[in-house]
Amino acid sequence: MSGRTLTWIVDRHTGQLTVEGLDATEARALAGDLLPAPRAVNCARPLDPPPLPPYGTGPAGDGPTLRVVRLYHGLVVEGPGRRSVLQLGGCEHSCTGCFSEETHPLDSGVALPLPAVVAALLAPAGVPRDGITVLGGEPLLQPAGLAALLRALKGAGQHITLYTGYTLAALARRPDPLVREILALTDLLVDGRYVAALADGAGEWRGSRNQRIIPAPGDAARHLSTGRQFGAS
User: Fold this and answer.
1) Could you tell me the sign of the dihedral formed by the alpha carbons of 118, 73, 45, 231, in that order?
2) Which stretches does DSSP call E strand in the chain?
3) Number of domains, the chain
4) Entry pTM
5) Mean pLDDT of 200-210
6) Are residues 174 and 61 in the same domain?
């Protein structure tokens, strides 16, 4: 493991240890005499996801809905701190080696009304909570519902991390005002497709090295439109 960067994250609320940069065999070899048997966790692949809120049947009313595959709490690998996570269905990127291929069909997941999704994301089960992460699938395939969700979450004072397979430059070129609003409501954007050949050494919160962590993506998109540079890691 010489030259490899390992990230060790301890959830102060539960005491759970998450290590990024090791597979299960390497983890056992390194600390098997000190720690319980490891279990693999990956992007959008929590250990024990709870069932979705029981709102998937019956009329959703006239308000916005979102197609939801998973909703879970207490994750420390999908954005800063301890987060509640929403995984949306539908994706057209078809990234080879994707860990969430079940989210690719456009009809994947369950259509849930926005109030049910907001209530579940802000439920006491996620406390303490440092923010909300939205990933997919491809969240930008549901722009109306996503924009409405982010408005509600920002109104509740939540920090928003958003994952997308599109690059910020591609999103900045879109004329859709909903896309601009989504970027403006997002605190931290992780952009770019997953590239399996670039997975090693991707770093915290990213699946592959091509992906970037972009704070204040709304501001960054405006900079791009005027030819200026923006900060990303």
Assistant:
1) positive
2) 7-10, 17-20, 65-75, 83-88, 110-113, 131-135, 160-164, 188-191, 212-215
3) 2
4) 0.84
5) 90
6) yes
